[in-house]
Amino acid sequence: MTILLPLGIDGNSRLIDLAQLTVENAADSIFVMDVEGRTVFANPAAERTFGWSREELVGKILHDVVHHHYPDGRPFPMMECPLGQVFQAQRRLEKHEDVFFHRDGTPIHVACSNAPVMRNGEMVGAVLIAVDITERKRGEERQRLLTNELNHRVKNTLATVQAIVSQTLRSSPSKDDAQIAVEQRLKALARAHDVLTREHWQGAGLHDIVALAIAMALQELATNATKYGALSSAEGEVHLTWSVTETSGAPRLQLQWEERGGPPVSPPLTRGFGTRLIERSLAHDLDGSADIDFAPTGVVCRFEAPLG
Length: 308
Prior knowledge:
Layout: H1 11-24, E1 29-34, E2 39-42, H2 44-50, H3 54-57, H4 62-66, H5 82-89, E3 93-101, E4 107-119, E5 122-132, H6 134-171, H7 175-198, H8 212-227, E6 237-247, E7 250-260, H9 273-286, E8 289-295, E9 298-306
Antiparallel strand pairs: 1-2, 1-5, 3-4, 4-5, 6-7, 7-9, 8-9
Helix pairs in contact: 6-7, 7-8, 8-9
């Protein structure tokens, strides 16, 4: 947009007034410094963004107020500062990103433009324009973490699928049995992922899903109980209980699957896929422990894992 003002006797003053209004109402922080880097002007946006009033900033070297150290805590000499380069080279420094600090010490990510103020070929000061991009940087960091987490979960899921298929094929007595077992296990995996996706991978209620690994374990226990255990009998029952306990100040989940009223149980001669999944993979995925007791009165499986 171009603003045309009629120039007359007071044309220059009107242009100065317009420039002053523009700077005062700008959404970006604007600082003006003398040749020593001392602040001579800061607009209201700068006051709001960095927490210092104009009166407090005037006369102070701006670098020492808002740019005094690196984000990691190391001192930040003026000569290493991009603004310092403007004073030394006396030329404009195009937009770049940096980290300034609020009055309370909070880091503020900014996109800056620095330029010398020249009069008759001589530098008389400098201007700094800073745009607060903290929220954008947080969004970029969240996106980076999400991408890394997604890559991690995809790799884990593919490894789980590979293990399901390969171990099921090895332990199934026939091709038909293998097909049914693979389908059931992949459906359990898919249901667990559906819940987590619905909750944006931020976790879900225990009544929906304990965790992806536990969901797979419960699928194996339920399948075994339906074929051979308590759920194969009209009088059989499965009791699923859980609690959270504190150990050295850290909460831990304790979950127990207990079958009752079914046919007598005897320990298997070999460890099948389901048993290996529970005792090895589950403990590894949850950084906890899992134990299966083939008690004569019914299978009892206990999980324990840290929360948080």
